[in-house]
Amino acid sequence: RPLRGPPWAHIIVSCLRIATSNPSAALGRRALGIHLTFRSLRRPLPPAPPTTTTMPLTRFIFPGGGRLCRLLLLAATSLALTLPSTEGFAGRQSGVRIRADEPSDGRRSRSRLHMNLPGQVSKKVIVTGAAGRTGSLVFSLLDEDPRFDVVGLVRSEASAKKLIARTKCALEEVVISDVTQMQFDNVDGRDSHPWPYALDGAEAMVICTSAVPQISKLSVLKAVLKIPLNIMTPKKKAINFRDLQFKYKPGQYPEMVDYIGQKKQVDFAKKLGVKHVILVSSMGVLDPNNFLNQIGKDKNGDGHGDILIWKRKAEKYLCLSGLQYTIIHPGGLLDSEPSKSELVLDVDDALMEREKKAISRGDVANLCIAALTESGGRSVSFDCIGSPVDQEGDGPAKVKSAEETFQEFLSTGRTADYTLGPKGM
């Protein structure tokens, strides 16, 4: 229906029509919409100019409309051509990352929209062991944080599927590689770039790999059969968990994963140009008789064990690599909710003297993020546990964030002493 009123009113209405129309239309469709909109104006089009001189579009449509009409038309055209699409698309536009798998029901899933401030560039971080219970938490936090671009390194295709299902990350954010089999040397010039291109440009690496023991089913059966006898014996627990035996899968021994594998990761970080390596290790490394060192050994002390000893050797290798490092020694890891306990940081197994020396995996993940953002180029190695918080009043207990705790510890200038420990560690 033709519009009534002066030309400048027609322009304003046209601007509103264009701005509220579907911005996901193609460029040609937008141009057609502009054309059809302005056809509704009652002013007839002037005859073609007698000369071949180029005439501005605004002057051609509104020969007497004045400067205001021309400016409004140019503004409307610019607005129509620059409005972003409302449909999901892969890639980056103006610092915004939107992925094609955005839910269509209006819900924004985790890590589907990353927005940076003008001039801000995301920091690329590689997380190894990203499918593990601690590694997946670190990966999820980085994937949700607009300050970071994360790539997860996993050992197998099954681990990759598990990570994608758990975190809903994009396929290109996961790389499959067994750290114990890493071979990045150029063999006879056959491949000058043997690693996936997705790992290029990383500035930091978070190492969460660790040998994982499997419980012996036979030892569980024996422990269950002993329960009636143990119950009848005073001051004896129904199940003595020290009687349970563990073993490692072939090729996944502590020496292979926690020492050789982590050494290869440090070497690879140097090849990639990574500047900062964060290593999640374990507390209790100064005690060679720690129970964890007995896992994987038989009664005679033979077998593949000594996980804390191999971890300590890998830490020393990282310290001598020339890279900036943050080495985190958590106590017993719990699958509990993070940020519910007060984080306590110390060095050289001083926290082993405490009765409670456990920490949430989520708190360890938060400390990894704090190390990425608050280190300030300084290297440090520390132990960490969670301490219960005293409830004051009816409100929730106040707990310092991982960033605040990490900053306070850095200000003390303390770090682990790697001259301590038995010989050979």
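Above is the first protein from milestone M3; the second protein from the same milestone is given next.
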Amino acid sequence: MENSHGSNNETTENQKIKTLKAMFLVLMNCVLMTIGQVGGPLLLRIYYLHGGKRKWLNAWLLTSGFPILILPIAFSYLRAQAKGQATGLLVTPKLVASSAILGLLLGLDGDLYSFGLSYLPISVSSLLGSTQLAFAAIFALLVGRHKFTHYSVNAVVLMTFGSVVLGLHMNGDRPSGVSDGKYLLGFLMTLGAAALHGFIMPALEYTHLKAGMPIRFDLVMQIQFLISMFATLFCTIPMIINKDFQAISKEAGEYGLGETKYCMVIVFAAVAMQLLIIGSIGVIFCSTSLLGGLVSSLLVPVQQVFAVVFLHERFNADKGMALALCLLIGKNRPTQ
């Protein structure tokens, strides 16, 4: 009896430790999402505001920071080797193929977002980006992982209404030098990027569920590396065709904030956006795409504050209404 009682206590203690570890991982990934989602778009918009004109370069920065993943992958490899555990590539050919497809879609998503951001203030871009929550609810039904509930219907209605509010009141917030046509194009491209991202999230979760192997930290890092690598390759090809790499030195010399700050904006933007990808995929691995969407929606007000404080963008009644609708989507979002 004593042995049985001791075994139960040990099992309970191990379960508590596992739960705490899982909560810690979710929290850390949420922190990474916060840094990336707030800082990344801000730096990308700063690039445009002070003379940056290379849209393909801006899109390339969204995923080109993936080499920083080599550090945690190497750390995980050395730790496993020290413990005598199996090391090497954990991804199967099926996971590599899935990562390639998701990476190409993420590259296209980045192109749409970057081109849209060149014509929109970040406050409008972030609000439109938050509509990916509603798109995710729709695509989750098509993927077959989640049921179509009253939340899904409410999210679609609120998303549509919020987008219409922003679309019909564009004149007072259009950036200098941007025509109505370009503003509308940016509006539609950002909305398209949100829709595509809304598909990628449940598709990624579905890929994880069908992986057929235990979800481990090193596996997550390897999949993230592959997805970002393929997304970067997708954006590299048009950069080469457009000769953007050759134009970087010239653009840096003519940049409004100076060459040094140009390099800082470029590097920090790439790192911040990679942190966003790491955090987003990490949350999906450790929890679900639903939690990832919830965290993303809760960060929209923070983006609005930073846009007003650092970029001096206006926050009018239309944006306030769209933000309130966005928060309503997040507030009523199911947690499982």
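Note on the second protein: Residues 2-49 form the longest helix (48 residues).
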